[in-house]
Amino acid sequence: MAVVDAECKFTMIDVGVYGKNSDGSIFANCNFGKRLKEGQLDFPEDAPLPGTEEPMPHVIVGDEAFPLQRNLMRPYPGNELINNEDKKIFNLRLSRARNTSEDAFVILSKRFRVYQRRLEEYWKMKFASSSPQNNALQNLMHVGGAFAGSSYSTREKFKNYFSSPDGSVEWQVRAVQRGRQYN
Question: Ranges for the DDE Tnp4 domain (predicted)?
């Protein structure tokens, strides 16, 4: 599982940049984001979730800054959570998956500092040669707002699975009822 968060981190790669670029724009324009959108990443074949028969796509877990795509799940927005425990449970489970992956990244980068140095040096070189004029305006066409089609259905299926006897865990309802925010 990989994670994409507000810093646009995933697996062992950090694509965040400085400046006023939005996270969604940065992701949409980075090679990984483009390849994900175009279906050019080598994901494993769809497989059923435990206790089910319908094949589901393998997904990357992202936060609200990123678009919902076939292989990129993001939380439900806050306005959809009102009086909807199942969507709150989905956001809880998504948040826990993001946190687990982020924690693993931190542990690996502390243990193997080479990950930090390579990334820092790469971004220093990449943006040292960028001129402010080139970054002043961006083409925002195809960034966010596009209808995700079957991606909404996939998120619904994950939501239903997390609330089903096959996919639920005993603590999730208590956590959601305590009123914690997961988005």
Answer: 2-121
